[in-house]
Amino acid sequence: MKVQSSTIENKYLRVKSINIGASLYEVYDKQKKINLILNLGSIKNYSSKNFYVGATCGRYAGRISNSKFKIKNKTFKLDGNEGRNTLHGGKIGFDRLEWKIKHHSKTKIIYQLLSKNLDQGFPGELNSECIFEIINKSLIIKYQYKSNQFTHVSLTNHSYWNLNKNKKEAIFNHDLKINSEKYLEVNNKLIPTGKFKKVKNTINDFNKFKNIGEKIDYIKYKNTKKSSNKINALGFDLTFCVKKNSKKYLASLKNKKTNIQLDFYSNLPGVQLYTSQGLRYKNKLSPYQGVCLETQHYPDAPNNKNFPSTLIKPKKLYKYFTKINIS
After folding, report:
1. Residue 218 CB neighbour total at 10 angstroms
2. How far apart are CA 302 and CA 121, in angstroms?
3. 69 neighbors 40 (Cβ within 8 angstroms)
4. In terms of DSSP bridges, do strands 23-29 and 63-64 run parallel, antiparallel, or are they unpaired?
5. CA distances in angstroms from 118 to 70, 78, 181, listed in the order given
6. Nearest residue to 150 via CA among 303, 8, 312
7. In a 3-state reduction of DSSP, which class is residue 43?
8. Per-domain residue ranges for the chain?
9. Which H or E element spans position 223?
10. What is the pLDDT along the chain (327 residues), one digit of tens a residue?
C-alpha cells in the first residue's frame, strides 16, 4: 500500500490529506498559525490500523447491530469487528483502503474508491467519491456514491478536532453548541434502542455553548461506579438528531484561549459527538486529545424502521456535504 499525501490551499487555509482512507491529515489556519486536527505523525503510520484518525469511515459509519440487516427479506451478514456488531464498515472498512486521486487542483481534491459486491458483507458494487475543497475560510467535505444494487451506505469524516496550539493539551477548555432537541438512546454496547430522548434538562443539552471539560467531569462523577461500559462512562459517544433549519446549521466548537471557532453545516440528519475517551496511539495520541463531530446518518438505521432510511437504490447518485466555517 503506497501512502501519499496531497495539499490544497488558499490564503487562509492549508489542508493536507492522505490517500489511505481519504483522510484529513492537517487543517492549518494560516492566520492563527494553528493546525486544527490531530494526526498520526509520519504519513507512513497511515498504512497500519488506528482509531480512524481523520479518515473517511464506510461503508457504514457508526454501528450495525448483530452485524446484519435485511433487504427485501434477504439477510446480509456483515463482517463483525466490535464483538457481535459492525463498527465503521467492518475490519477492512474504507478507512483502511487506498483511494485513487481522481482530480487535484490548488483548492480541491477528489478521491475515488470502488468497493466490490459483498465487500465486508455489504451488497452491491459501490462507487464512492470523497471531495475536499476550500473556499475562503471554509473547508467543504462532500461524499457522493452510486451502487448497482440496493444497499445501505453512510459515510462520515472522523477528524479529531483540537483548537489548542499545543496538541498535547486536552479538549477540556473547548466549548460546544449542538443544534439538537433529541438524541438516540443506546444500550451498553452503544447500539441505538430505537428511542428518541429529549436533551432538555439532561447532560446531553448543548443548545447553548457548554464547556466540554465540565460536562465530562459530571459524567465521570455520575457514571463511573455504576456503568457497565467504562469507556462510555468517561465521556460522550452519542448521536444527536439535528434540528431542521434553512441554513442546515449543525454545531459550533470554540476555544477562547486561541480565539478559534468552527461552525458546522450539513444535509445529514445526525452528528456523532465523541470526546475521544478511548483514543490511544503509540505515544502520540491519548484520551481527550480531540473531539469528533461526525456528520452522518443514524447508526443501525438498516435495522430501525423509524430512523431516516440509508437504503440506496441502484444506479442513483446520492450526495451529502459538510461545511466547516473557520473563524
Report:
1. 11
2. 14
3. no
4. unpaired
5. 14, 9, 37
6. 312
7. helix
8. 5-326
9. helix 212-223
10. 899 999 999 999 999 999 999 999 999 999 999 999 999 999 999 999 999 999 999 999 999 999 999 999 999 999 999 999 999 999 999 999 999 999 999 999 999 999 999 999 999 999 999 999 999 999 999 999 999 999 999 999 999 999 999 999 999 999 999 999 999 999 999 999 999 999 999 999 999 999 999 999 998 887 765 555 665 669 999 999 999 999 999 999 999 999 999 999 999 999 999 999 999 999 999 999 999 999 999 999 999 999 999 999 999 999 999 999 999
As a whole number of Å, the CA-based R_g of the chain is 19
Q: Strand, helix or coil at 281?
A: strand
Cα gap 168→57, rounded to integer Å: 25
Query: What span, in angstroms and rounded, lies between the C-alpha atoms of 185 and 299?
Result: 11
Place of cell 498559525: 33
Supply 59's cell numbers. Answer: 461503508
Q: Say how far apart CA 128 and CA 125 lie, in whole Å.
A: 10
Please give the model's pTM, rounded to 2 decimal places.
Answer: 0.96
Per the structure block, which three cell numbers stand in for 107? 483548492
Pairing of β 249-255 and β 174-178 = antiparallel
The C-alpha atoms of residue 179 and residue 193 are separated, in whole angstroms, by 22
Count helices and strands (H / E) in the chain: 1, 26
| Residue written as grid cell 475560510 | 137
The CATH architecture that domain 5-326 belongs to is Distorted Sandwich (2.70)
3-state SS track over 139-205: EEEEEEEEECCCEECECEEECCECCCCCCCCCHHHEEEEECEEEEEEECCCCCEEEEEEECCCCCCC
Residue type, 140: I
Grid cell 475562503 — which residue? 136
Q: Is 104 helix (H, G, I), strand (E, B) or coil?
A: strand
